[in-house]
Amino acid sequence: MRGFYTRPMADTFDYVALKLKIRQWSAELGFQDMGVAGIELAEDERHLMDWLAREQHGEMEYMARHGTKRARPAELQPGTLRVVSVRMDYGDGDDDAAWDTLADGSRAYVARYALGRDYHKLMRNRLQKLAERVAGEVGPFGYRAFVDSAPVLERALARNAGLGWIGKNACVINRGAGSWFFLGELYTDLPLPIDPPASAHCGTCSRCIDVCPTRAIVAPNRIDARRCISYLTIELRGSIPEEFREAIGNRIFGCDDCQLICPWNKFARHHGSDDFSPRHGLDQASLVELFAWSEADFLERTQGSAIRRTGYTGWLRNIAVGLGNAPGSEDVLAALRSRSDHPDPVVREHVAWALARHAA
Asked: CA 281, CA 173: separation in Å to the nearest integer?
């Protein structure tokens, strides 16, 4: 991050040419797309405030903590004139393998974005390098890089930058690349030319709404986080409401169903990067195997992984739910009994629920 500067009124720099160079540098740094958005997000702000007023953010207090800064870039970072939005693909090009894991109740399903390296630091470092290249061209300028690190309406900004539209599942969808990608932003005081926003192409399709296991997509582009498996297995602290446990199935960290079913993801591309390849066999692991991890194992094997966010007790809680939904076997029952006296009451509760399901 650098301080923002007041640019001279008679600034005659060729920002059209600069934007072309930024696009080239973005590609060289491993971003698959970039675009430039303005900072007007009034309609999205109204949507956000209504979502918060309905308490559909659940326990994610941070979504409301910063007031209007999330929808007003110049309030978050004074001096901001434009937002450079970038996309980095993480899909593996094999949706059938994901469906196979979901269909095998003995295996653990981890959301694709979390199978490999945590993208936050990786993308921030590349955005920093992008900013340094810009500085080498224009001299000192104001910027700040974000990758899920501040109150930013990244999807609305990506849409306005032309990277894709916000689908009915609230994911950004690109006509030529689907939705398996991460987003990052560079807030800047440079008056770069703005790209036209992406138009929507979901049409009458409702596959994502229909496939959601917990009916969390309560309306097009409206997610009730309190019902969402990603929220329940990652953001929620404490007990998962019993009404959702069976529907969670074997999803122990996040959920991809609404993306797996999306017809636009037939155009998604393989990420082609070792950074996002599965680690520790997480794309093939069994629930019993992962439930046996000690806390030391968890900390070692999730180093540099987004899975760390759920914490070790959250990890065990989620796997206990998966084991409760798994086909009955001596291995499953033995695994659950091994944690029946766990010191954490939330883990004990979910283990007891799982054992009761098998007893029934």
From this structure: 28
